[in-house]
Amino acid sequence: MVVVNIATHGQGTVDFRNSPSTPITTNNLQGATGLISGAGNYRFGLYVGPFGSSAGSLTLVGLGTNGATAGQFNGGSGVIAGFPSDTQVSFQVRGWSSFAGSSFEQALTYATGANMPLAYLGQSTLGFFTTPSSGSVIIFVGGFELAPIPEPSAFVLSLLGLSLLGGLRLRRI
Question: Tens-of-pLDDT digits for all 173 residues of the chain?
């Protein structure tokens, strides 16, 4: 869920954050979930591109962090240069553990390298807004979840176990 409001400060900028009714949560993939907490523990990036762009082709234009209020972040302002007024722009907000890198891409590389501690990553659904002729756009991002990426070895072991169980069952038939 994304709500866009027009404000009156600084043409060509976008402010992004979430609201108390759309908290960001974590999930440790073992049944425990909760609100993000610990000021500065998570970073959030605003990624934009031409309307209809895929998530992989969006460009980072703004960075923010979570504050002291559990479940919430304030992304601050990002410049949306290169888009004329009244143009639809696609966007996505991505979040990650601060220690894992200064961008989502760095955090993803860290997380897929099976490094410890585990990094939490997540992203909003793709949305869009229209660039204003004056002022700036405020994007209230709907809640989404940050979770660690499972280790590939755990996934492979799970598949191996399932195939062995399937083989034993077929052998009994």
Answer: 344 443 333 346 788 999 899 999 999 888 899 999 999 999 999 999 999 999 999 999 889 999 999 999 998 877 777 888 888 999 999 999 999 999 999 999 999 998 899 999 999 999 999 887 777 788 888 889 999 987 555 444 455 565 665 555 555 55
Q: Which of 130, 118, 128, 117 shows the shortest CA–CA distance to 93? A: 128
- How is residue 141 written in tokens? 């991002």
Q: What does the buried/exposed string (b/e) look like for 42-63 if buried means 16 or more CB atoms within 10 Å of the residue's CB?
A: bbbbbbbbeeebeeeebeebbe
Rounded Cα distance between 53 and 102, Å, is 23
E strand intervals along 8-110: 13-18, 25-27, 33-35, 42-50, 59-66, 73-79, 88-97
Check if the beta carbon of residue 58 is closer than 8 Å to that of residue 52: no
| The two structure tokens encoding residue 33 | 């979930």
CA 89/CA 67 separation, integer angstroms = 27
Secondary structure class of 172 (helix, strand, coil): helix
Dihedral of CA atoms 29, 122, 39, 136 in degrees, nearest 10, equals: -160
